[in-house]
Write a structure and sequence with these properties.
This protein has 342 residues and is mostly beta strands. The protein has helices spanning 11-22, 59-62, 292-296, 313-316, and strands spanning 38-39, 41-47, 81-88, 91-98, 101-104, 109-117, 123-126, 135-138, 141-143, 154-156, 163-172, 174-175, 179-187, 190-200, 205-216, 219-220, 230-236, 238-240, 243-250, 256-257, 261-262, 272-279, 284-290, 302-310, 333-335. The chain contains 4 helices and 25 strands. A 7-stranded mixed β-sheet has the order 4-3-6-11-13-2-5, with no helix packed on it. Strands 10-17-15-22-23 form a 5-stranded mixed β-sheet, with no helix packed on it.
């Protein structure tokens, strides 16, 4: 019988076998995108949760302690996700990212980047083919028997909370490691706390709604500025034991730039606030207020308060103790919701 011969494989064969069993080394796995030379830009989003900007009044500094809600309670929530628009050589592509950001897919080269939150309901985006013309507006809202406050203005529903960010020039390069791109998502809509206070007759009020005329109809996503187009915002109010209150979101005032402030003469610019109340006996009363000075001093959110509103006993007790019908005809608003064709 011949003796057994132990065969030792060459070291090169052992190395190949080990590589096959353990997987490829990072620098050799060029077929795997995460290990290859490719564009690996990862957006890291930070959300600036401001509900108003200081212009004339610093509300955060002078907030009144006796008010029932704290200043920080009005801070908006971050968006639940991000829409990313990538502009390259006159062409645009879009993708969606998580709230915290994520990998932004694009080719090697120089791009312009535009971001906004993708969880809005009433916002309408327009002219997004170019970052310079991309705007956000909101839907038309009509109210039966509504008395026009500003002739020719479109009446609209208040916009959702909108954030945006813009990167004018970003050069994407192929790398082995991920490249972080910090992005600050800044508010493009702001809130006005509107307070109606009664001198007498508050006890007769069952329901209320308001309107604010002269506000910006749209905002430019690139830098948050507004042009001269104005609109009237229609909104509902909460009735309590001391008056009526609304937290109204808007694009701010027309003709305003973050870098330059007002871009036109505001001397003759007017803003009108209205209040319509439905009394418990079913009667409707309307009030209007010139709030031009208050709004001009607060171009991006703030507090608007009107006082000394009176509901007379004669109005409040008219018709006896008839009940209030919440479904009374003409009280509900109508919102124009575009439907897809085809």
């Amino acid at each position: 019988m011949k003796p057994l011969v132990k065969i030792v494989p060459p070291l090169r064969i052992i190395g190949v076998l080990l590589l096959a069993l353990t997987g490829c080394r990072k620098e050799l796995c060029y077929t795997h995108d995460e290990h290859s030379y490719s564009v690996k830009t990862h957006v890291k989003a930070d959300w600036e949760q401001e509900w108003e900007r200081t212009y004339y009044v610093d509300w955060e500094e002078v907030w009144r302690e006796e008010w029932p809600r704290e200043y920080d309670e009005f801070r908006p929530d971050p968006g639940t996700g991000i829409r990313a628009l990538v502009y390259t050589d006159g062409k645009m592509s879009e993708s969606n990212l998580e709230q915290e950001g994520g990998r932004l897919h694009m080719s090697e080269g120089t791009h312009t980047l535009l971001f906004y939150n993708n969880n809005t309901e009433y916002i309408v985006f327009d002219e997004v083919a170019s970052s310079a013309t991309a705007t956000a507006t909101t839907r038309t809202r009509t109210r039966s028997n509504f008395t026009t406050l500003h002739e020719g203005e479109r009446t609209i529903t208040p916009p959702d909370m909108l954030y945006g960010a813009f990167v004018r020039e970003y050069t994407a390069e192929k790398t082995l490691e991920a490249v972080s791109l910090p992005v600050e998502m800044r508010p493009l809509t702001y809130s006005y706390l509107i307070r109606y206070r009664f001198a007498s007759g508050q006890q007769y009020v069952a329901q209320a709604r308001g309107a604010l005329a002269g506000m910006a109809e749209k905002v430019y996503l690139q830098d948050g500025h507004t042009d001269g187009t104005s609109a009237t915002l229609l909104f509902d109010c909460k009735v309590d034991e001391i008056g009526c209150t609304a937290l109204l979101q808007s694009f701010g005032v027309p003709d305003y730039s973050y870098t330059d402030g007002y871009t036109t003469d505001q001397t003759n610019k007017s803003y009108v606030l209205s209040l319509e109340v439905q009394l418990k006996n079913g009667k409707k009363l309307d009030y209007t207020f010139d709030v031009s000075r208050m709004v001009q001093a607060q171009p991006r959110g703030g507090v608007i308060q009107v006082t000394d509103i009176v509901v007379s006993d004669e109005d409040g007790q008219e018709g006896g103790s008839g009940g209030f019908d919440v479904d009374v005809d003409g009280w509900g608003d109508q919102i124009d919701i575009p439907l897809p064709l085809g």
